[in-house]
Structure formats: C-alpha cells, structure tokens
Design goal:
Helix content is 50%, strand content 15%. By secondary structure, it is of the alpha+beta class. A four-stranded antiparallel β-sheet has the order 1-2-4-3, covered by helices on one side.
C-alpha cells in the first residue's frame, strides 16, 4: 500500500514515534524515582513491566489502580512471572502523569 510508496514519510513517522516513546518512558521513570515498593524494567516496547514489593500482589494492585479508572495488566499468569508483576502501557503525557501519581499514592499509603 501507500506506506511502501512513501518510505520517507514512514521513516519520519517511525522516528518521531520512537523519540516520543523514549521521552515518555524517561518522564515516567523519573516520576516514580525514589518510590519504594516498585521496580520498573527497561523495555524496547511501549509496555513497561514492573515488580511490586510486598505487601502488594498484582491482583490487589490492579484493583486499586482500576478503582482510579485505569487498567493495568496482572502478569501472574505469564510464563516465568509471579503475582509480583504488573504491566502497563504508556499513553499521552497527561495520562502517564496521572498513572504515575496513582502508583506513587497507592505505594506510599502502604
């Protein structure tokens, strides 16, 4: 289709998207810097994997975040992962900041 007929446009879109994702991940990591109870793992994708420290389990954490109107993925049924792991995808800057704020608030209340 058209994408292959306009490789310069596709490359430009790819580069802008990649740069946006890199910036958003850096901001998100920064927003949660110093928060005890969560470890974020670097990723090449727009999904971020996180390990929760006790007393949180993925199920309880997902419910608490879900109560704020944001869905994140419980990774307890992924091969090789346990109920300590959750995954979320980054969105626009405002939504990412809201998610980071909710994560910070929930973890700091424990």
């Amino acid at each position: 289709g058209q994408a292959f007929e306009q490789p310069d446009r596709v490359q430009s879109f790819y580069e802008k998207t990649r740069d946006y994702v890199i910036r958003q991940k850096a901001v998100f990591f920064s927003n949660l810097e110093g928060v005890d109870g969560i470890t974020l793992f670097e990723s090449a994708a727009y999904f971020l994997l996180a390990r929760l420290a006790p007393p949180f389990s993925s199920d309880a954490f997902c419910r608490k975040i879900g109560a704020q109107g944001i869905l994140i993925r419980d990774c307890s049924n992924f091969d090789g992962l346990t109920s300590e792991f959750v995954r979320f995808s980054l969105k626009d800057e405002k939504t990412n900041a809201i998610l980071a704020g909710h994560i910070r608030s929930i973890l700091e209340q424990s």
